[in-house]
């Protein structure tokens, strides 16, 4: 058991932390207010290698391990989870290829992401299939060397700006999950329509749209995994990304706690800083404990991934605990700020709005509980 | 023994730089304990006029070194002459002002003498001839007391911390016998002076400084400075943005100032800025953020928009003239 | 004409950490402090990398201190330095000893240029550059800066501010001096020290950090370099600076003028 980080993990953390502190955070409030897409920041993140973290070194990636990815995710989301979501959504879009693509597909589809700045997205959720991911209705009908794709995807991060989309569809709805395939859609093929950018409550800097497919022709060469393996591809992707999403919650909560501590030391009531009151101290103490616990769960899940161990249960623990924790911590941070916390002039209400989304996306807290229960009750 | 050699500095126009007198003040504090003499060295193309200017300030001997290689005060050229003066004066202490010239030349002189050096010295302390020096550390966050144990020690002193001595009878002027100078490997090419009709920042009685809050518009600050006969300063953010020349930066890494009145306009008060101005007698802060840290060091704070308040203040001062 | 440039990478307390005097008054509270690369050295490394990008050559980073300085050397390597030299020395060091170590390394490495931060933000001494220049008998250009602002196009395109002559024998440096900007040229080899406004240092990239893992850090000690590192400077005590206590807020300009005239008597 070793809790010490390797020197390069510390160096990666410092690099991500510096980027979050100097580049992301100063702009976070403005992007939250406008909902504009932070392309310049994402481009700079790409230049520094802070995106495409999951691309393996076998295709020219930087060989950033799972633990380091998790550590970086905390720092970036500490800066702004909305901007961070756009960064990690690239990896989410690439992971099906990283995990299940052939060497040819990796070379062809992943390498361009290392050569120039581009974005990817992950298309699983549909208007009628959220938590019930196996219930997707998008259809793919084989015609020679092509699949003809029809259907709609919703809540797609980077949906409006992606140059590669990993999209899940069914070849035969009657087969349920074993009818699902994963297709990599490149560029803007005829029949693909991107919806308008959703006006979200939080994480407003991330681009979120629908994707509509009308008779879109996708080469069979772009199918990731075999026919019928699509659901497994999706679940493995989410298993890999879940510790990172959970770390987003840790970053948000840590930012909220730091703001609350600084404010509590400064804010005077009854002629004393409010940090001298036990009522405030207990709020802060609980924040610190919860953040530490969530971070350790995330790191354990990442550590299991790095050892190629099954991490489904740990990563669901991490995602569920961290997301709910961040909601609680950010709510309490607003409480520490009192009336000021409820104002957009102070930074904590944004964090509370941002935290809410982590309880919902990539498997709601309720779905995580179902996963945990299923693991517990395995025969 | 215990002689002190003070390195004399000229203004760009050749006149005696005031900071040299402050360095002479520091030398005075040393010889008071050692019973030694204060010597000075002038290194210039023609050192004589400057030597005459400095001779009346409690100096026993002023050594002069004149020659073309001393033009522009380049460290490579000046160092051998200063070292020759250290030998001639049998000095145990070499003192100069912590100006750009001093910060360039003094450590090189110390290198030649294998001498330990304290930079930016604030005071001279200790008992008898057992000297200690105080100096800022960590951008002035703390003040350290240091002891130097080399046979000769070199000090650069903060001019604002030492009083200039009164002029008296003139000391002797003695020309140094120097070996033929080695060929210079440093060539002067150009000097772009920041021209100003205002008093120089480090020597002004009043300083008006602008920060990020000005958004680069220094016109109100210039008007106020004109009304007060003040020098203009700026925060690091302003200089980094290229809104004002670097030469105007007040702070630990820029100019350290200690005027009678310092007016900080639209400056938040980062520690590194405060380190450069907290020696001022009276500090006024004008900022629209009532929680700006600058108010914790200001004697008088005024909260509001500088673009309304500064013209109002300028008008009030003009009206009372 | 490839350039070999020696740069320094000193480990200093992060200026955003709170520097406080310890209970004994003998030093600062080190618990909870964060450390970083001296920002002036970071600028020196950036300038060296820009020169090498333009003219070819290599950047060699040096640090003196305990094993902890590997973190700063790794950062220099991650930024793009080719290799690093560590002078292993635990315990107090003064500028004279550091300069002596650097001089020995310069004698071994024979660089064309040594670029150092004009000072480090802990001791605020500002001596090592000129010490080194004198010990090596090289010309020096302290306080290197540039006329262009840090928001200029030249800065955005990462153009080096130091100009190498076409014959590669001389470097031209714009120096920040009192009253203006002085431009000088130094015959190589030379020592240059950097001002804040010379450049905006690059961020270490993730690929850079990963590549730095496999770059070598060569180890020396003052003894193996033949340097006596006994300090000639002793820090006897540290104290908090005299506090300026907060004054009062005045309601308006009239009140301010009144206070300045009748209370402070400064106008």
Task: Give the key terms.
heterotrimer, A: about 375 residues, four-stranded antiparallel β-sheet, 10 strands, B: alpha/beta, five-stranded parallel β-sheet, 8 helices
Main beta sheet strand tally, sense and closure of chain A: 4 strands, mixed
Rg of chain A is 21 Å
Number of helices of chain B: 8
As laid out across the biggest beta sheet of chain B, the strand order is 5-9-4-1-2-3-10
Give the strand content of chain B. 25-35%
Oligomer: heterotrimer
Query: Which strands sit side by side, in order, in the main sheet of chain A?
Result: 1-4-5-8
Distance linking N and C termini of chain B: 54 Å
In which range does the helix fraction of chain A lie? Answer: 40-55%
Low-confidence spans of chain A: none
Q: Mean of residue pLDDT of chain A?
A: 95
| Low-confidence sequence ranges of chain B | none
Helix- and strand-based class of chain B? Answer: alpha/beta
Order of helices and strands of chain A: HHHHHEEEEEEEEHEEHHHH
Major beta sheet summary of chain B? 7 strands, parallel
Tally of extended strands of chain A? 10
The end-to-end distance of chain A, rounded to whole angstroms, is: 30 Å
Write up what this structure looks like.
The complex is a heterotrimer of chains A (379), B (321) and C (267). With 379 residues, chain A is α+β, with helices and mostly antiparallel strands. Chain A has helices at 7-34, 39-47, 66-79, 81-100, 103-115, 230-266, 278-306, 312-337, 348-358, 365-376, and strands at 120-123, 139-143, 146-157, 164-170, 180-186, 192-194, 208-219, 223-224, 268-269, 272-273. Chain B has 321 residues and is α/β, with parallel strands linked by helices. In chain B, the strands form 3 sheets. In chain B, strands 5-9-4-1-2-3-10 form a 7-stranded parallel sheet, sandwiched between helices. In chain B, helix 5 (219-228) runs parallel beside helix 8. The radius of gyration of chain B is 21 Å and the shape is globular. The model of chain B has no long low-confidence stretch (mean pLDDT 92). Chain C has helices at 39-55, 70-79, 95-109, 128-136, 153-156, 206-212, 222-225, 253-263, and strands at residues 3-8, 11-13, 35-37, 57-65, 83-88, 113-117, 140-145, 163-164, 170-177, 180-187, 190-194, 217-220, 233-239, 248-249. Chain C is an alpha/beta fold and 267 residues long. In chain C, helix 2 packs across helix 6 and helix 3 crosses helix 4. In chain C, strands 1, 4, 5, 6, 7, 8, 9, 10, 11 and 12 form a 10-stranded mixed sheet that branches. Chain C has a two-stranded antiparallel sheet with strand order 2-3. The longest helix of chain C is centred in the N-terminal third of the chain and has 17 residues, at 39-55. Chain C is globular, with a radius of gyration of 21 Å. Chains in contact: A-C, B-C. The A-C interface holds A 7-8, 10-12, 14-15, 18-19, 47-50, 53, 62-64 and C 70-71, 74-75, 78, 203-210, 212-213. Strand 16 of chain B pairs parallel with strand 14 (248-249) of chain C.
């Amino acid at each position: 058991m070793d809790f010490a980080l390797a020197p390069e993990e510390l160096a990666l953390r410092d690099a991500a932390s510096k980027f979050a502190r100097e580049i992301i955070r100063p702009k976070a409030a403005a992007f939250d207010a406008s909902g504009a897409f932070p392309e310049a920041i994402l481009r700079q993140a790409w230049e520094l290698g802070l995106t495409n973290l999951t691309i393996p070194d076998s295709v020219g990636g930087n060989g950033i391990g799972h633990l380091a990815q998790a550590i970086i995710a905390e720092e970036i989301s500490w800066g702004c989870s909305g901007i961070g979501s756009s960064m990690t959504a690239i990896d989410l879009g690439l992971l099906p290829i990283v995990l299940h693509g052939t060497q040819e597909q990796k070379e062809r589809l992943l390498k361009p992401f290392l050569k120039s700045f581009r974005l990817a997205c992950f298309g699983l959720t549909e208007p009628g299939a959220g938590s019930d991911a196996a219930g997707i209705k998008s259809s793919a009908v084989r015609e020679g060397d092509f699949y003809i794709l029809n259907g709609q995807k919703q809540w797609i991060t980077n949906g409006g700006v992606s140059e590669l989309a990993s999209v899940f569809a069914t070849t035969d709805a009657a087969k349920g999950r074993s009818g699902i395939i994963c297709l990599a859609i490149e560029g803007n093929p005829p029949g693909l329509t991107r919806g308008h950018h959703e006006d979200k409550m939080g994480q407003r800097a991330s681009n979120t749209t629908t994707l509509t497919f009308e008779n879109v022709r996708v080469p069979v060469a772009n199918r990731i995994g075999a026919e019928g393996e699509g659901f497994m591809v999706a679940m493995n992707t989410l298993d890999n990304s879940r510790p990172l999403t959970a770390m987003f919650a840790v970053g948000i909560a840590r930012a909220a706690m730091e703001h609350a501590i600084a404010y509590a030391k400064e804010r005077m009531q009854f002629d004393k800083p409010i940090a001298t009151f036990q009522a405030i101290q207990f709020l802060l103490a609980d924040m610190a404990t919860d953040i530490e616990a969530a971070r350790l769960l995330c790191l354990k899940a990442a550590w299991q991934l790095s050892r190629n161990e099954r991490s489904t249960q740990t990563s669901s623990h991490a995602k569920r605990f961290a997301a709910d924790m961040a909601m609680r911590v950010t709510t309490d941070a607003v409480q520490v700020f009192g009336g000021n916390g409820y104002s957009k002039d102070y930074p904590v209400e944004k964090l509370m709005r941002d935290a809410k989304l982590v309880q919902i996306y990539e498997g709601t807290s309720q779905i995580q509980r179902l996963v945990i229960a299923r693991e517990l009750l395995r025969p | 023994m215990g002689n002190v050699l003070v390195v004399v500095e000229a203004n760009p126009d050749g006149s005696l730089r005031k900071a040299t007198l402050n360095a002479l003040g520091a030398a005075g504090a040393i010889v008071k304990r050692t019973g030694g003499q204060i010597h000075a060295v002038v290194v210039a193309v023609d050192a004589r006029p400057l030597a005459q200017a400095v001779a009346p300030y409690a100096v026993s001997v002023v050594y002069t070194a004149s020659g073309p290689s001393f033009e522009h005060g380049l460290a490579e050229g000046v160092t051998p002459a200063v070292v020759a003066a250290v030998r001639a004066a049998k000095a145990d202490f070499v003192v100069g002002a912590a100006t750009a010239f001093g910060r360039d030349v003094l450590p090189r002189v110390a290198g030649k003498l294998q001498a330990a050096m304290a930079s930016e010295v604030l005071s001279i302390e200790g008992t008898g001839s057992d000297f200690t020096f105080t100096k800022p550390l960590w951008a002035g966050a703390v003040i350290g007391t240091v002891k130097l144990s080399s046979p000769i020690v070199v000090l650069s002193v903060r001019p604002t911390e030492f009083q200039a001595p009164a002029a008296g009878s003139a000391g002797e002027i003695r020309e140094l016998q120097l070996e033929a100078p080695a060929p210079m490997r440093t060539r002067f090419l150009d000097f772009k002076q920041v021209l100003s009709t205002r008093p120089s920042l480090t020597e002004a009685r009043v300083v008006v400084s602008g920060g990020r809050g000005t958004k680069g518009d220094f016109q109100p600050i210039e008007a106020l400075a004109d009304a007060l006969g003040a020098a203009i300063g700026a925060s690091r953010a302003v200089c980094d943005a290229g809104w004002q020349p670097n030469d105007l930066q007040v702070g630990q890494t820029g100019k350290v100032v200690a005027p009678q009145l310092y007016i900080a306009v639209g400056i938040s008060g980062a520690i590194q800025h405060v380190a450069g101005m907290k020696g001022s007698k009276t500090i006024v802060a004008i900022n629209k953020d009532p929680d700006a840290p600058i108010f914790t060091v200001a004697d008088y704070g005024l909260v509001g928009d500088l673009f309304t308040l500064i013209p109002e203040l300028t008008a009030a001062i003009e009206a009372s003239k | 004409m490839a350039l070999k440039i020696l740069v320094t990478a000193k480990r200093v307390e992060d200026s955003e950490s709170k520097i406080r005097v310890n209970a004994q008054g003998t030093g600062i509270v080190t618990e909870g402090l964060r450390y970083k690369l001296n920002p002036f050295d970071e600028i020196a490394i950036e300038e060296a990398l820009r020169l090498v990008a333009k003219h070819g050559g290599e950047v060699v980073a040096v640090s003196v201190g305990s094993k902890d300085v590997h973190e700063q050397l790794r950062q220099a390597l991650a930024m793009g330095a080719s290799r690093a030299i560590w002078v292993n020395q635990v315990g107090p060091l003064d500028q004279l000893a550091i300069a002596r170590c650097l001089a020995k390394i310069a004698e071994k490495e024979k660089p064309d240029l040594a670029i150092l931060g004009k000072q480090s933000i802990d001791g605020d001494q500002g001596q090592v550059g000129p010490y080194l220049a004198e010990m090596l008998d090289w010309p020096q250009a302290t306080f290197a800066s540039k006329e262009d602002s840090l928001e200029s196009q030249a800065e955005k395109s990462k153009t080096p501010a130091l100009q190498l002559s076409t014959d590669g024998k001389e470097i031209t440096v714009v120096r920040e001096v009192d009253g203006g900007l002085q431009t000088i040229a130094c015959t190589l080899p030379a020592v240059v020290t950097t001002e804040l406004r010379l450049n905006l240092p690059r961020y270490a990239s993730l690929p850079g950090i990963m590549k730095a893992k496999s770059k070598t850090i060569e180890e020396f000690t003052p003894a193996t370099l033949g340097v006596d590192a006994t300090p000639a400077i002793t820090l006897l005590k540290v104290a908090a600076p005299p506090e300026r206590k907060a004054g009062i807020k005045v309601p308006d300009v009239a009140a301010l003028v009144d206070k300045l005239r009748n209370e402070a008597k400064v106008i």
